[in-house]
Design goal:
Elements: E1 11-14, H1 17-30, H2 35-46, H3 59-63, H4 65-72, E2 85-89, E3 96-99, H5 101-107, E4 117-118, H6 123-143, E5 153-158, E6 165-173, E7 177-181, H7 190-198, H8 203-209, E8 215-219, E9 221-227, H9 229-242, H10 245-248, H11 250-264, E10 270-277, E11 280-285, E12 300-303, H12 311-317, E13 322-324, H13 335-342, E14 347-355, E15 358-367, H14 375-382, H15 385-411, H16 419-434, E16 445-458, H17 461-490, H18 494-512, H19 516-530, H20 534-537, H21 542-554, H22 564-594, E17 598-604, E18 606-613, H23 625-648, E19 659-665, E20 670-675, E21 680-683, H24 689-697, E22 715-720, H25 723-738, E23 747-750, E24 761-766
Parallel strand pairs: 1-8, 19-22
Antiparallel strand pairs: 2-3, 2-9, 4-5, 5-6, 6-9, 7-8, 10-11, 10-15, 11-12, 13-14, 14-15, 16-18, 16-19, 16-20, 17-18, 20-21, 22-24, 23-24
Helix pairs in contact: 9-11, 9-15, 15-16, 17-18, 17-19, 17-21, 17-22, 22-23
Amino acid sequence: MADQLITEDFRTILSIEPLLDFWRTQLVPRCSQMADLFRGLEERIGKISKLQGEITDPDLLVQHTDILRPLMSVAFPPSTWETELTGAFMPFTHHMFYSTPTYQKLLLDDQGQIAGQLKSMEKGDMQFNRLARAYALILERIYGIDQGLDSPFIRIITNPETGLQRYFQINPDFQFVQVGTVGKPHELSSRQRQRIIEKIVEPDELVALLPPEQFEFRGFTVVRAVDVTESEVISALERDLIDQESIFSADGFRRLQNRLRNLFGKPELKAGLGAAQGDQVLVLDDGHHSTINCLFRNSRHIPMDDLKGSVWLKALEQEEILRIPDLSKKPDLCLPEENAVQAGVRSMLIAPLRFGGKPIGTFHVKTDQPNELGAVDAERMSHIVPLFSMALKRGLDDMNNEVQAIIKEKCTAVHPSVEWRFQQVALNHMEQLRRGEASEMPPIVFKNVIPLFGQSDIRGSSEARVRSIQADLKLQLTLAANIIDRAAEAKSWPLLDEISYRIQKRITRIQTGLSTEEESDTAVFLQQEVEQTFADLLAINPGVGRAIDAYQKAVDPDMGVVYHKRKAFEESVSLLNERLSSYLEQQQTEAQKVFPHYFEKHESDGIDYVIYLGASMHQQGQLNPFFLKNLALWQFIVTCGLAWHSQQIQPELNIPLNTCHLILVNRTPLSIRFRYDEKRFGVDGAYDVRYEIIKSRLDKAMVKGGRERLTQPGQIAVVYSHPKEGQEILQHIDYLKSRGYLLADVEQIELDDLPGVRGLKALRVGVNLQAETVPQGIRQVG
């Protein structure tokens, strides 16, 4: 019975002749003991004409299994008859006439038809694939062209009762298929052979070169199937998890869960992910998702404290999969565990998810039957844990990017020590938006915070800056006056006398004082009135030309003005600031490792900084008084270092700059609030404003009863309010004198009242600027 499934023109013939040839030419010559068996089988076949040549009725083979089975033993070994998935088919058809019991059970449906479907292959693709294989066999057997088109394909079988899918790799074996020609085979030229090689994956092209009606297939195809469910599911999981939506959307997570059911062979299995995020865990499973592709929006949040002692945290802390035979038997269930048991959870596997060596969450599977997930399942799970680790890391990155975008929009840069609090607020803000509620970023307030303020100010910087500007303007006006005078010597034009008069008048005013308006007005005068005359005056005589050339060489081409003294001053300030700032940053980075704290620094003519320290600013809500005292001493030592660096850098400065150093001690806790409009922290509450007032006015503080400024070059002034604070400062001074950081000239000072502030006291002490090494606030170990 010819088959027409490949194409109308191909002829396929069912026959056992190729099998008999194999016995006759290969098996019997090598295994003489098989000769008597084969001779007897041949004699019996010789008496049954319908088994000879073309077999038109496959049922005849079923009727003569006593003959067929020993013959087929070369392709169907008796030792694997009950375990292997093997079947025999008419060539290139679905007409099966012989198979192992396991093949029938798993790969045939109730009607005896091939079950399931080919993976990623439409019906048209199936026909195309068969045609390609048929031509590959023709080219190999008839024309000696072998291009290796014998790759296996995958068939997916769905269990109608459980809905679980199994994947089988189908490997066709054409050993017992003979390829013949109808008439003389078509001769191929070298050019045609080359074209066939180029078009071998395009069988439609081959039809024109090698018409199918010229060929026939005789014999049968042996098909062997191998269960590749695990590798196929893992491969599919890997593809799915590349896509963010697959894990962070409802449909995507359900698809993942179905794949896991196929992998573990358990139709009721459920999966879940827990992402560790600060003080909470974001839980994803098949019941808490929207269609939005975001980890945060598709999860429910459980406080980390609620999970203390739970199996999830236990798994997170270890480096191997945790197996729970029966959760209900665990003593001292926490609330989430009780909820899970009430929901029917019994057997569980929980895997810690890590990235870069750090735990980021957990992945678990669970069933409602005790002891249903065993060691084999744990081993299977271990193969997919890295995939979920990578997917969860991408999800956390995506969520954190969204959180950072909110923080950046509302708060600009945030110091790392308090970033956790801003993340909490941003997450709450996102949660309200997710629920469709109107939301503004809630206030960020830290209560009971101790501030540490310090300042290293360049003494007389404003006056020095004014002097440098005066010198540059005077030089530029003098050079301009020289041009006008040279021109007036040659030409007695009255306008030259007027310009000269106006220049001299400005020089006189600048020498007596300089306002910002005067500076800009003089620059406009020179550029728009004086310099505009240069083109007309240039031709008067060579002396005028030389004077103009001298003027233009003195003017900075970028600034448009003489910029000698100002440049020297600003470069000196910049170099000093850079040295002080670098030292302070390095020191506070080391101090952060001892105890995290908020640090904010500003640069102008010198630097000032503020440190906020408190239990409320620490994620674990703890502050040991020891760390506060330690940081206060650190601040004193670092201030000595700032003074030391100020002295050491003097030879590198174009203009000498003296620095004065100040510390404000305040051990009374206050509250600070982040001000979204100003994008910075400020004190919160009327009482705490007093601290800000003191801080802003201290650099102008005067010693009581005189005209002496509190801050003096080469000294540290420490301002305080309460006697206990003064005693602590004196202890620090005594210690730092013993270390060689401070001199022995300690002064106790009372200060004049500042506007709105009374009763401040201070201690002032000289710094040992000749010390051989820079003071280190935190010694580096190792």
